[in-house]
Amino acid sequence: MENLVTELNVESAKLARRAADEITAKDPSRPRFVLGAIGPTNRTLSISPDVEDPSIRNVTFDELVVAYSQQVEALIEGGIDVVLVETIFDTANAKAALYAVDEVFEKIGRKLPVFVSGTIVDQSGRTLSGQTGEAFYTSIRHAKPFAVGLNCALGAKQMKPFVQRLAAFSDTYFFTYPNAGLPNAMGGYDDTPAEMGADLEVFAEEGLLNLAGGCCGSTPAHIAAVAEAVGRH
After folding, report:
1. pLDDT tens digits, one per residue of 65-105
2. CB 148 within 8 A of CB 115
3. DSSP letters along the chain, please?
4. Residue 64 has what pLDDT?
């Protein structure tokens, strides 16, 4: 469906824009914003897909830049407010995305805020390509993101030590949107909305974040519970 990339991204952004504007119109004191999510793709620049040959790569930096540029330009055409480079397991991919974002900004003659979100894949506290949170932020800091954060992979409880470290290290706004707990044996997520809200409320109490949300396994009920919990702080 590569021939539909532009259409899919333009139309999805338009749908989100329309929904956000409808809700904002009901209460203009609480404007809603649309974030265009730029995911990591299913390819990695840093790791070989062949365990027998560590030199092999199935994608190049330039190929990723082309793909990201097409998506970013289409999302902006659809009406997003913020570019979100997210679920980063390989910072080299993120660098290609950020390069593409800058190219598109230069092409269209305006800039949008950019959020960058990494993902810690296990309790080692590192991305899949081996970086700590601090190293990840150092690698993308040149892009001057409006906000930086962590998402996916872990539930809020498991993510907390890594959130604490990166929030203290970064010099910009910080956010997190964890999974609804760790995936269980059946690939589902067990944290209830109340549990997820309580976990993220602790983050807010400790001053660790400016924005919060939910990733895998989170439902509208989870997001409502998170909003209510962190809204008390």
Report:
1. 999 999 999 999 999 999 999 999 999 999 999 999 999 99
2. yes
3. -GGGHHHHHHHHHHHHHHHHHHHHHH-TTS----EEEE---S--SSS-S-TT-TT--SS-HHHHHHHHHHHHHHHHHHT-SEEEEEEES-HHHHHHHHHHHHHHHHHHT----EEEEE---STT-B-TTS-BHHHHHHHHGGG--SEEEEEEEEEHHHHHHHHHHHHHH-SSEEEEEEESSSB-TTS-B---HHHHHHHHHHHHHTT--SEE---TT--HHHHHHHHHHHTT-
4. 97
**What is the spatial distance between Cα 233 and Cα 231, in angstroms, rounded to a whole number?**
5
Using one digit for the tens of pLDDT, what is the confidence trace for 111-162? 999 999 999 988 888 999 889 999 999 999 999 999 999 999 889 999 999 9
Q: What is the pTM assigned to this prediction?
A: 0.93
Cα torsion angle, 183, 185, 189, 195, sign: negative
Class of domain 2-145: alpha beta
CA atoms of 146 and 50, how far apart (whole Å) = 37
The reported pLDDT for the residue numbered 121 is 87
Listing DSSP states for 180-204 in one string gives SSSB-TTS-B---HHHHHHHHHHHH
Alpha carbon distance, N-terminus to C-terminus of the chain: 44
Question: How confident is the model at residue 134, as a pLDDT?
Answer: 95
Domain borders along the chain are 2-145
